[in-house]
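Anyone have tokens for Probable membrane transporter protein? Sequence:
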Amino acid sequence: MRVIVPEENLVQLALACVVALSASTLGGLSGFGTGLILPVFLVPLVGIANVIPVMAVGMLINNGSRVVAFWRDIDWLHARRMLLLGLPACVAGAYGYTLLSAKWIAVLLGTFLLLSVPMRRVLRRAQLQFSAATEVGAGAVFGFVNGGVTGAGVILISILMSVGLAGSSLVATDAVVSIIMGAAKVMLFGSLSALDLRLALLGLLVGLFTAPGAFIARALLRRIPAGVHAGFMELVVVVGAIVLLSRAWA
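Reply: yep, here.
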């Protein structure tokens, strides 16, 4: 089947691919960011209702590249704890997403992006210490949120930091949890016709442009502080959230 992207969207698609590479590199340095920045540029291209399915496909490749790049650093114990209840909760959250109208999807996504900035700062300063049981419960909360929005990696990073992960191990474990949950989302969206061939190919294209970012990040990880880009990323996320919310109520 031949899939044609309208000519007026080619510039937006090219921009999304460039942003995908940049966001993936930044995300590889800190473990978050790709899923928060990309939706801002994808909404005009695919529509609000299709952002999460397209991002689910794209993030599979993004996180898959991180898994390959940081394979030896994955902490499987914490990954299993996060997935125990987190995986079924993610499927439930993704199913709930498919029941929403485009307006409420915009409200949900815009609100989450807007709250992600102070939430990241609060979680970073909280210095939480989780037990094994608390980690499993936190995995369920993250899974449900992750099923219905994009960019929830800020929550996962905070949980993994609270159990002592840092550096390459933090990024690697975040990636393996995210890719397993992402695969479950893609299968659900596909089975419910929320993800057709055109959207899947767009997600694949964007995802391919995120893949090199993990390897660039690995080369830069020892040279650039993880938080050096945070201010710029937060500005983009806030502006994108305001745009989404304004569209929802227009």
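The two ends are 36 Å apart (CA to CA).
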